[in-house]
């Protein structure tokens, strides 16, 4: 039954809700992002500067068989570059680099500062050396590249020398065997049967000697080329660590994540109503209508009928009509005639006044007789909006004066000048009216209003400050809870719903308003009105009780013709009605004169109502 279902669906979507949460707790997110940036700056300042210099080495095949690639090697070719990369950081190469650098560190300490990379599909090794000194980084990279090439060349030469020695030994043995065979053949007769066998051995030995001699000559003429440096190490101009930009970005991201997490935690722990969707989800209360934040409720007038706020309360009126079932075959308006709807605020504030006044105006726009009853006591006037300003009526006499027996209900009922079919019974000015909202006089007053009006809207005190709202709800046919975003707590809404349901009154739902802001000027005017009401209260306390009213037949409220308006810019004088003194002992009533300046405004205000001062 949400009158703003589309708007609520848009507001309560997960993405928009997350952004709204961050917007509501922007200071917390900003604080943690700043803390993350500050921590990143401090961490950057504490880090030691690290310079890196790289040398590119082209690895050439030696051609002696020791460069053969393994079957499962990562690189394809005659050279296994994975093995060569491991050789760069070996202890032997590190010791050679230490001698070239004339460093004091051990070979293992130097090897830990080296990083070797193998570019894909190449026979290059990129040897990178890290140091806190730029010149040391350059010298270290070049030293390890030079030591690697020297070690590789020496290893290749040692391998070639070993193979030459082996071939030379085999040749010496074969030559010795051949010499023995030749000597034996020289001593044999041509017809000796052993001669063919010795000649075959001589041929085999001669062939082997020729083969080994060829291999020996190849090794003796082989030139060893271990590789070369294609790009020597350069002097680094700036350190690679700390990376200030990366640290700042990481700190800001970490702060943002912590800020969002803290905002989410604060949102979970915060018991204030932040969104209309909180009510059905947390306290199981239906949202009848929700006034969006872009529509600012006014505390000096009701919403215009065709404005955004007026349309919302027109829909709220329809929601109320639909929530109270009508008898079969009966008109909804006839079924609702004489019904009482109580509007109670879940927390202190002007939410109930704004909702009650606008709902009553919406009922009056249907052409049916409507009465707005303000049941706030004078001690809570400072926490509510002024109904007399919103509807253009006097502050006194009102409901408390009627219940105290100072005035009759007819004299306390005022017609709203800007809203036909709407009558108002203000709070009144009797300061000794405490507890009267639970009296039989209130029941009789509401019964009389039921007979005279089609709709009776009662503005009840807040359920969090008084039990009067529960008492009023027990006399009503339906109840509505007024909720003010960012001020009303979920526990207060749950308590209000529980109070109203315990007395058996159907709770139609809640009307959600954005947080109401009262300007400083508005607060000063409210204080002046309270002062005037206190002055009038002192006068009314001295009046004798009114004569009992004669029973009257049930009838609709009819308003006397309005007095002619004073000329523009003129001054009208209003006096309290004269009362005949019942006894000489009663002091003479003092008459207070109030000057009211009426300004003729040809143009409408923001919500379509005339501005009056």
TrEMBL record:
The chain crosses the membrane at residues 25-43. Residues 540-613 are annotated as: Disordered. Keywords: Coiled coil, Membrane, Transmembrane, Transmembrane helix. Residues 157-184 form a coiled coil. Residues 559-577 have a biased composition (Low complexity). InterPro entries: Bact_polysacc_biosynth/exp, GNVR, P-loop_NTPase. SUPFAM superfamilies: P-loop containing nucleoside triphosphate hydrolases. Residues 543-553 have a biased composition (Basic and acidic residues). The keyword Membrane applies. Gene3D superfamilies: P-loop containing nucleotide triphosphate hydrolases (3.40.50.300). The keyword Transmembrane applies. Residues 218-267 form the Tyrosine-protein kinase G-rich domain. This is Tyrosine-protein kinase G-rich domain-containing protein. It comes from Dactylosporangium maewongense.
